[in-house]
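Exam review. A common question shows you a sequence with its structure tokens and asks you to describe the fold in words. Practice with the pair below. Do the first one on your own.
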Amino acid sequence: MTPEELRSFCLSFNAVVEDFPFNPETSVFKVVGKLFALTQLDGVPLTVNLKCDPEDAIRLRGEYPGLIVPGYHMNKRHWNTVTVDGELPDRLVRELIEDSYDLVVAGLRRAERLRLDRP
């Protein structure tokens, strides 16, 4: 997955915006103001911080040591840093991004979730 493919995929979800609250190099992808992905698109290697169910986070770290690690500068229980350099299947990376988005949406207030469902 290239940096542009990562960016495009994150922006493909409903109501997502890209923000730069920390610096011009760090892309923060948010849904209704809540962070679900954080990356430096020009980073080498390319990595992305993603929200994850705590049990899944531990399992993924065990299955993909060195490629999926506890979230850098994040709550290590709920966030993983995923290396997107081609060693992980793109399909898995997309699933992890989608799971992160879904977890954040699930935590929104009901009214906010209902607004997301409208066309």
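Now try the second one, then compare your answer with the model answer below.
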Amino acid sequence: MWRRVTLDVHLDHPPSRVYPYLADPGRWPEFAPAVDSRRPLDGGPLQVGNRWAAVDRIGPFRIRFTDVLEVVEPDRRVVWHSTSPWNSRVEYVCTPDAGGTRVRADYGGDVASWLRLVALLPTFVLARILLRDFTGLRRVLEAADRARASGG
């Protein structure tokens, strides 16, 4: 079942601080509640085609798939493709906004197998679930600010 959700989020941190989290799946478990783990399958610098072994948690279930980097524009835009069962694509576009960053997150996909049940949720519910990632990212960035201010 094809679904699309677009979020528009403001974070009080510049793109140079926000973008690295969105571009590095290894950091996603720090702030995204559904992300269990991400492990790079390819070595070297971040580049189009890099793959990550991925595990997400949906309730008590673990979903295994691969994330593939499709587009990388440092400090501005990154696009990830997730293989089956998510069969999805997420594009994060970061733009400077009032001393912080405006992130447009565009999620779209054709979810397979029993995960189609997730796709049946109303769009506003899916949006609220996805917004939790940005709540977590905001928390991680603020904690880093506090640690830096206290000399840690």
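Model answer, second protein: The beta strands are 2-11, 35-40, 51-58, 61-73, 77-82, 88-97, 100-110. The chain has three helices and seven strands. Full marks require stating both points clearly.
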